[in-house]
Amino acid sequence: MGEIPSNVNTPAGCKFHTRCPYVKDICKEMIPPTKEVTPRHHVACHFAGEI
After folding, report:
1. CA 10, 15, 16, 22 torsion-angle sign
2. Ramachandran class of 29: left when φ > 0, alpha when ψ lies in -120 to 50, beta otherwise
3. CA distance linking residue 40 with residue 28, whole number of Å
4. pLDDT single digits (tens) 1-51
5. Distance between CA atoms of 48 and 6, rounded to whole angstroms?
6. Can you give the pTM of this predicted structure?
7. Which 8-state DSSP code applies to residue 36?
8. Comparing C-alpha atoms, which of 24, 12, 28 is closest to residue 51?
9. What are the Cα distances from residue 14, in Å, to 25, 39?
């Protein structure tokens, strides 16, 4: 499922967009903000809490 990006030439936007099943255009353009979804559990996803 998808490709693991190069560590030397990382893609723009979210580091995981090349292999995420929920990818949308924003993922390819912008780095997602870090959000705390539960106490001491942080995620970096544009759709955290929605999926």
Report:
1. negative
2. alpha
3. 27
4. 677 767 777 779 998 898 899 999 999 999 999 999 999 999 999 999 888
5. 24
6. 0.76
7. E
8. 24
9. 10, 23
Residue 46 CB: number of other CB atoms within 10 A? 19
List residues bridging with 38 in a β-sheet: 41
Q: Cα(first)–Cα(last) distance of the chain, in Å?
A: 18
Count of residues making up the chain: 51
Q: What is the DSSP letter of 15?
A: T
Q: CB of 11 within 8 A of CB of 30?
A: no
Q: Which amino acid is at 11?
A: P
Phi, psi of 9 (to 5 degrees): -125, 75
